[in-house]
Amino acid sequence: MTSDPIMFRPLACLLALAMATSGCATKFIAKPNNPLRPARTAGWDVGELSPATQARVKTLGLADPVAVIAALEPLAPRDIEARRAVIEVALAAGIKAHAKFLTDRGAAGLYLCAAEHAFDARGQGSAEFQRFCREASRYALARLASLRDVAIKNGVKLEPNIAGPTRSYHVEFRTNVPGAVRADQYSTLLATDRYRVVGTRDLALVEGIGTPLVGKVNGPVGRAAAEAVAVPDGLWVPLTATVEFGPRGPVRTATFALYDRKRVETAQIGGRRETLVGDFSTPFAVRAKELDEQNFLTLGILGFLRGDRWFESTGLYPLETPVADKMPVVFVHGLISDPNDWRYLHNALLADPEIRQRYQFWAFYYPTSMAVPWSATRLRQGLAHAQARLNPGGRNPNLSRMTLLGHSMGGLLSRMQIVSGGDAIYRRYFKKPPEQLRLSASERAMVRDMFFFQPDPHIDETVFICVPHQGSYLATNWIGKIGRTIARLPLTVIQTTANVITLNADAIAAGVQFQPGTSIDSLSPGGKFASILQELPMSDRVKKHSVIGDRGAGGDVWKTSDGVVPYWSSHIEGVPETIIPSSHGGLEHERCAAKVKELLRAHLGR
Description:
By secondary structure, the chain is an alpha/beta fold. The protein folds into three domains: 5-30 and 295-604, 3-Layer(aba) Sandwich (Rossmann fold), CATH 3.40.50; 36-166, no CATH class; 167-294, no CATH class. The chain has 22 helices and 20 strands. The strands form five sheets. Strands 2, 3, 4, 5, 8, 9 and 10 form a seven-stranded mixed β-sheet that branches. The chain is elongated, with a radius of gyration of 28 Å.
């Protein structure tokens, strides 16, 4: 049989389908949208002139938009219909000039004119007129962001002074206010109206001032991000752009600010504290679209098939800028999965303002071909590293109130963070202490960390979602056999195991047969790992809860299964549990999201 990975792809997809069933292949994704051609509605739409504006322009007898704006602008401070006409004409003209931006900056000046008049209209007119101004300003800033993207992609340097229809604008950027970030922290800035999100009924949106954007982080790559406990390169995050205008004159200052929307809810705009508009859903959908275009196979499948290639990416990654005053929620994905598979639940949690403001979200990535003890050790090391880096001496108490959310096999990794190892387990495998093993310093440290550990004192709560605590029979049937065949272990795992076997034969306990087992071996019911796990009591200090999927068993809970994990395997005596009508992809079920929200809110009160 050939070992060509291409031949294995159909088998990998089959295994992924069988192990994840319905749910993990979510359709929560972004579809392109052309905001320069908005769908027409019965009311006013950006880019068109309302009947009142058309009549006003007709009475002027002017065809040139610039001339129309110049004629109406002096009337705008005391005539809201004149103000509205200026904004509508400027936007419509800006849209027509948009495509010529590389040779003519007229579109930018027209968009700034519309934003300027929307800014000056604060407190003027009715609530309906104020909504119109917010919508117009939002659209103008979104198109300015699009023009910036065009300029960067074409190597065009943008000057700080932009000519408008009646004055010039001097553009400045403010970064010295809470939550403000620099534009150069992102390789790409896109307006959210360039996409429509499909595949979810619940969008995490907040109405407010400004324009929602998605930014692609320009940061450390892969392992370097985990070492720095920094948001990794390429992650899409929610941002909000605002603009304020200085005193009127031949040259007027336009001061832009870009806010990390996960860090701040409000900002001081024009002398008033305002809620910032927020779109927390589109970044997830854009990321899913990008991954879908980049890879025929998902990162989760690639990590299983090519654990050797993705091993160095193993680590704990913040999904937002880490801060000291928010409690961490850590996502730990399951077999043939990756952090992107949490996007439905993550989106649902961000829709809750209290959770969004009090928690921060991190994710642990690991290639899932590795046996659970090895991956759990890497998670333990990642959590310890993050605490040492962000919370030295425990001086930030909120960072010491972590919640782990573990799905499927990720729940086993999470459980291993709240139990104790020690000599009793180690002696089942070795007759000599770790210090006497003939291994390199790094290999010996890994063996020590794998066997000798205590419950992480920084973990307050662990939520198990569709977790096979006692294994799954899928690991022992034909699907499991295929999985063992195609799983590719990291070279480090293979080499360390080989060194244990070949260099330490005199240190291995009687009856022990070492082999570089895969994650499938860890999931076998009655297997060595499953048996040992039941012997390790979980910390009484840590709150625990199980969310268990039930595809329907006629009311007999002991016959319940999510299609992959039976109830008897997910059930832990004494641990509160919630049964939801879900397949194994329970982390994408609305009842799971509701329960996790409930648990996180309760955690706030303890």
